[in-house]
Amino acid sequence: MTAIPTHAIAIAGASGRMGRMLIEAVQAAPDCRLVGALDVAGSPALGQDASAFLGHASGVEITADLRAGLKNARALIDFTRPEGTMAHLKACREFGMALVIGTTGFSEVQKAEIAAAARYIPIMLSPNMSIGVNVTLKLLEMAARAMSSGYDIEIIEAHHRHKVDAPSGTALKMGEVIASALGRDLKDCAVYERYGHTGERDPSTIGFSTIRGGDIVGDHTVLFAGTGERIEITHKSASRVTYAQGALRAVRFLADRKSGHYDMFDVLGLR
Prior knowledge:
single chain; alpha/beta
């Protein structure tokens, strides 16, 4: 019988909501093994067993020491914040390991640094690893091409009160996909704020609206508003488990790759 390959995985932000969801997903996957758990210096979770919240021990302690946390790993999954991810990026390049990034809010300079590192290690970067969201992105690409004129495009997103960046990375990715399908650059056509006397809507723009409140995991709607009709393409997340499962699919995808800059379209064969 052929042995199931084991993916040795470290998790960044191990004590956070997403970190815990990732740890639970790794522990439940027969082909994955938790070998490292990272958190920021000063976190009250440091020194604790990474899966204690599940009621059993993993034998992996949460640490702020990158070298200790990554020494046995072949891949790191990171859903933290840009400054943390950039530090992890340098460590992954040093250790030659794969990096799955779900962090959002990167600057253009940081995105360029990630792309440069991908010449040396395999990196999968996606603002949303939900399989459903990425299928939605493909549908948006098709819709934008079919409704390239005569339709105003608005993107509305809603997240929990703790989210610190806006618009969401997923909303921006939706805008990028739509703009690319229309032959535009999102930087040139995005409208993020409206207040006061704005004048008539420029039909070449893509508008964004942001809602923050409660414990909303993530809702995204793209509105194509034409004359006499409107089309709404919506994705709603009820649990972060979809992101965790997508991240594990990304780890498996990167396992036999030496380098490269990938996204979930590559992982899911939607390119």
